[in-house]
Design brief:
With 255 residues, the protein is an alpha+beta fold. It has 2 domains: 3-66, Arc Repressor Mutant, subunit A, CATH 1.10.10; 72-247, Chorismate lyase-like (Chorismate lyase). The chain has helices at 3-17, 29-36, 40-52, 82-86, 91-98, 120-126, 158-161, 178-185, 204-210, and strands at 56-59, 63-66, 72-74, 108-117, 133-142, 148-157, 192-200, 218-226, 232-241, 245-247. A hairpin with a 5-residue loop joins strand 8 (218-226) and strand 9.
């Protein structure tokens, strides 16, 4: 076995054993070479393979940081269950708690809100005219180690959300239960939800935004939300680090 592979196997074992917990800054490649008796070039090649696998992130000047390899299990249709957001649990909070044995998990979410002119796709998603004013709510979420996991942008008709928690830039969800709960309080209860998913290579801007190497894939998601009467109340688009999420669906087979 090549020395590079020997070191790679050893590092994988130590990461699995928790020797270097998520968020740990590893010793420099030169220090690792001395510690394990390998050439620096072998250490560098192995680290690049660990980064490609999503286990570490090599940052210039900041060192190599250990990432959390445990993916968030997204609960498919169940994450949107009415009883959850009506009880104050936003969809992503439901995902996080489900993956933690049902225990509550603090989600680090940072938000930007602004009023913009609707692009063609946003106008189509909200069934309004192109160029009409809409509220754009962007949020970026991080795991416990401070690593970005994904970011999502939602667009709303201005009159649907003006003066609500959706307009807040405070960290965290848009009040208890998130945007769905806010829409319900506005008399616009979400009823029909459609999601489209696509996996692809990231753009340079996305590698910067998610702090991932270009070798990792991303999952992009589009979401359309309508009331029982068919009125659009949200159009959303998000980009996820594909290694950070496991999408799970349980549903009854249609007749």
């Amino acid at each position: 076995m090549r020395k590079e592979d020997q070191f790679l196997d050893r590092m994988r074992s130590e990461l699995d054993a928790g020797t270097y917990p998520p968020g740990t800054v590893l010793p420099t490649q030169r220090e690792l070479a001395e510690q394990y008796g390998h050439d620096v070039r072998e250490i560098r090649a192995a680290m690049q393979r660990l980064e490609a696998a999503g286990l570490v992130r090599i940052r210039r000047k900041a060192g190599t940081v250990v990432l959390d390899p445990q993916p968030v299990k997204r609960m498919g249709v169940e994450r949107y269950a009415r009883h959850r957001w009506m009880q104050g649990v936003a969809p992503f909070e439901a995902d996080m708690s489900a993956g933690n044995g049902g225990a509550s998990v603090t989600v680090d979410q940072r938000n930007t809100v602004e009023t913009v002119a609707a692009s063609a796709d946003v106008a189509a998603g909200l069934d309004i005219g192109e160029g009409e004013a809409v509220v754009r709510r962007y949020r970026k979420l991080y795991d416990a180690a401070g690593q970005p996991t994904h970011y999502v942008t939602s667009w709303y008709r201005v009159n649907d959300v003006i003066g609500t928690a959706i307009m807040s830039t405070d960290p965290g969800t848009a009040g208890q239960g998130g945007g769905f709960s806010v829409l319900h309080q506005q008399g616009l209860t979400p009823h029909t939800i459609r999601e489209d998913l696509n996996i692809r290579e990231p753009s340079p801007a996305e590698t910067d935004e998610l702090d991932i190497p270009p070798t990792l894939l991303v999952t992009e998601m589009w979401r359309w939300v309508r009331t029982a009467a068919g009125r659009p109340v949200e159009y959303a688009y998000g980009v996820h680090n594909a290694l950070k999420f496991q999408w799970s669906y349980t549903f009854e087979a249609p007749e």
